[in-house]
């Protein structure tokens, strides 16, 4: 697991309170305060905390004893994961009225020693209390209690039977996922991110797109999780918000790490990294490989999408089932997502469109290797594809220009 990084620590102190979530009224600790927009005075129609209050959502408020009981006292036997926030347990909760069947859930317990913390916990509750999409994990409720034994912050989610995309791509003890399922997963994840960027009154920048945050339900439907770092995007014509860079090494966009300028295109960059992880079955950074192979994005540059050795990047576990046309299309898409200049990166809407085409390529079983002509921007890919579609040219004979590799 790659660790999250915080280059500048947030000094804002949380206000301690009772069992519910009084902190959510405190903008200082909201996790998405928008004090540092790249312009002066900007008025918002609605902020996430406001939407959260208005929605009168149905999040359940759990007591510490309920969640202790649900996890057999946070038994190590029920621990299913560990991240920067703390440990994750499988648990069983009773229905709100105490009658009827119990329900299996995942319970995340804040590690009070951790770098991430209360602020992210509040952001997670607020964002997931407002957001609603089939490709986002469902938050069932939370627990906040402060007492002699310190602060307790927990989150209760729907249980994802198939863990995360990370587990299936990189953990040799977990069965791998076939080519078509990989495509469906990445398309679903892209649709989730498109919803965040374009489907709400406010734009939401996810800020932590990585394979461990793509959870998989019993049918391998992807669900984005972990909104602790999410932020509201810039308003109006502004290109970015300025913020202390936080995220995960290997996934964060270079301009964001260097300048703190955050935009939806930072998420698109992270998406490009995960696309290459999905194609190659390799992690963004793998310290136990030869030096030349440790950084996935450097390694794949040797095997360009239009080159004859492209298949070298394909995960050996799916070599006999992948569709080369779709794979090359996806590698080009990844390259455009990874463009150095954020403006040259596609929108998630465009990403979804290309992935749908790739899925069609895979479904039609085409294995034609595309010869490519010269071009450098993502718009060319979209434009040429649309143009060819209009002309009635099927996916197997489409030509896709090369996207710039940065
Ligand atoms: N709702 C859930 N259902 C089932 N398993 C889950 C659920 N949420 C998390 N997990 C498991 O717990 C693991 C740890 O999750 P967590 O989000 O705490 O950390 P992470 O994503 O690995 O790292 P980071 O904290 O840096 O984001 C996940 O990879 C997944 O296997
Ligand atoms: Mg996570």
Description of the structure:
There is one protein chain. This protein is an alpha+beta fold and 406 residues long. It folds into 2 domains: 42-158, Phosphorylase Kinase, domain 1; 165-390, Orthogonal Bundle (Transferase(Phosphotransferase), domain 1), CATH 1.10.510. It has 11 helices and 14 strands. The strands form 5 sheets. The chain has a 6-stranded mixed β-sheet, with helices on both faces. Strands 1-13 form a two-stranded antiparallel sheet. α5 (179-198) packs antiparallel against α10 (348-363) and α9 (324-337) packs antiparallel against α10 (348-363). The radius of gyration is 22 Å and the shape is globular. The chain starts with a strand and ends in a 16-residue tail after the last helix. Mean pLDDT is 80; it is low at 1-43 and 367-406.
Task: Describe the structure using short key phrases.
ATP-binding, disordered C terminus, 406 residues, Ser/Thr_kinase_AS, Transferase(Phosphotransferase), domain 1, six-stranded mixed β-sheet, disordered N terminus, alpha+beta, Phosphorylase Kinase, domain 1, kinase, 2 domains, protein serine/threonine kinase activity, nucleotide-binding
Summed up, what is this model?
It comes from Lithospermum erythrorhizon (Purple gromwell). By secondary structure, the chain is α+β, with helices and mostly antiparallel strands.
Span of the ends, CA to CA: 25 Å
- Give the overall pLDDT as a whole number: 80
Given as residue ranges, the uncertain stretches (5+ residues, pLDDT < 50) are 1-43, 367-406
Q: Please state the structural category.
A: alpha+beta
Count of individual helical segments: 11
CATH fold-level assignment of the largest domain: Transferase(Phosphotransferase), domain 1
Write out the CATH superfamily name of the largest domain: Transferase(Phosphotransferase) domain 1
CATH architecture of the largest domain: Orthogonal Bundle
